[in-house]
Amino acid sequence: HRIGPYVGRIKPAFCHFLIKYLSKKGDVILDPFCGIGTIPLEASLQGRNSYGYDLNPYGIHIAKAKKERKINIQKKIDLINKIVVDTKNISLSNIPKWVKEYYNQKTLKEILFFLDYFKKKKDKFLYGCLLAISQGHRPGHLSKPCAWTIPYKPRPNDPGEYRSVKPRLIAKIKRNFEETNFKRGKMKIKKNDARKLKNILDKSIDAIITSPPYLNTLDYVNSHRLRLAICGHYENKKLVPLKNKL
Predict the structure, then answer these.
(1) Half-sphere exposure (CA, 13 Å, Cβ side) for 30?
(2) What is the model's pTM?
(3) pLDDT score, position 237
């Protein structure tokens, strides 16, 4: 549950209570506003099958990271250690100036290199973990000291210290993966508009459990603007339509 933050997310303990008393094992749970997948994951941990949908790309990346099964952590660590970091072809010319202000430039190139590598390898778990630590205030995070959730502006003219991705990513996956020996339900996570779910609603859904948007009182785009930018969603033509939908 702690892979990455999300504004206004429902608490896992509350999810646990709702799922336990409003459904039974084997049921199919739908969350049409799943965010980072808190409800679908908790449903899976309690032996329910779940569908999770959302429009926020950052939320979907984290939710898909939680969906991964049968992860061998030592193999993940070995994979990370074997990667030869080569950032000579990583250009920052298209990255907005405001994004670059949050990073040591060498660190930023490493982040983009690894994200591209994991995307090509379709490793959703490592992609989500790296995206999560791309912003934060602790030594294990990769940005200049910055809030774990909504990013406040860093100090001007501060180049920031170089922060190597490999050791921080390895520490992250060790913190956030817990092996479970009991049977988990299936999770299906997809980027989709909740208003266009006719096909899924035609299937057998036993319960809809969700934490719906807060009547436009929360800005799901601006609050996650830095992580959205890191995974390529920083142009107005991409963000404005997304903000209007969310």
Answers:
(1) 15
(2) 0.92
(3) 64
